[in-house]
Amino acid sequence: MNHNLKSKNVSQFKSDLRTIRLIRGLSRKDVSINIGISDKTLYRYEKEPGTTPLHIAKRLSSYYGVPLDQFDYT
Question: What does the alpha-carbon distance between residue 48 and residue 44 come to, in Å, rounded to a whole number?
Answer without folding.
Answer: 6
